[in-house]
Hints:
There is one protein chain. By secondary structure, this protein is of the alpha/beta class. It has a single domain (2-239), classed as BirA Bifunctional Protein, domain 2, CATH 3.30.930.10. It has five helices and eleven strands, in the order βαββαβββαβββββαα. It has helices at residues 11-42, 86-91, 128-144, 215-219, 225-240; strands at residues 2-8, 61-66, 70-73, 95-98, 105-108, 112-118, 151-153, 156-161, 170-180, 183-191, 211-212. Strands 1, 2, 6, 7, 8, 9, 10 and 11 form an eight-stranded mixed sheet that branches. The protein has a three-stranded mixed sheet with strand order 4-3-5.
Amino acid sequence: MIYKDLGVIDYKSAWDYQEELVSKNREIKSEAREAVAHELQAAGNTDYPITTNYKLQTTNYLLFCEHPAVYTLGKSGSMKNVLLSEQEMEQKEIEFFKTNRGGDITFHGLQQIVGYPILDLENFYTDIGRYLRELEEVIIKTIAEYGLKGERSKGETGVWIDLGVTGKERKICAMGIRCSRWITMHGFALNVNTDLSYFKNIIPCGIQNKQVTSIEKELNEKVSFEEVKEKLKKNFSVVFNVEII
Length: 245
């Protein structure tokens, strides 16, 4: 798996880059299927599968970045969860995008690690639910290294703290993905030393009456951004059983 740190990059540029990587992998898979189909037909076998089970020659990527202030709305999201007008967002210099990922509204900003895994799940397992649970596990393992207990909320993808304490539930990591021909894009956003005031302008993930938090807020001190990245990479490697280069 290839790791790339894109640094601070605007949301649209990162999205375009993901689409480019996904497109290349899709082309590779299409060519591989056509080659297998041709071989089977030449052998007189026309009853071949649409997808193949052999090891595909696609490339997996793990992209990390930070975005300047931006709100993004998932394809199933509602504009009712955006509490600012377009003009107000312009005045506050916050970008806004409707995206093709799952989920609702969220915020991306500086000192938040946004992870975009571009994985061909046919090289792992063809199970979107398992993929999301394993992404959550990467975050849970990472924040545990800071003494924080991350939890899952049924039906609410992401990682939470104090989930069982009514009125104190806090989301520390949001997730939303897209999967096309078993190739993933988009991913997770872990609040490290993030300015959480931006979340007051939205109903995060469309979930009422639950708070948003960060590692900094939970520990009451800033943490090393680069250190968190390294821990995320290590835990991603462990959970997905891949070598990251």
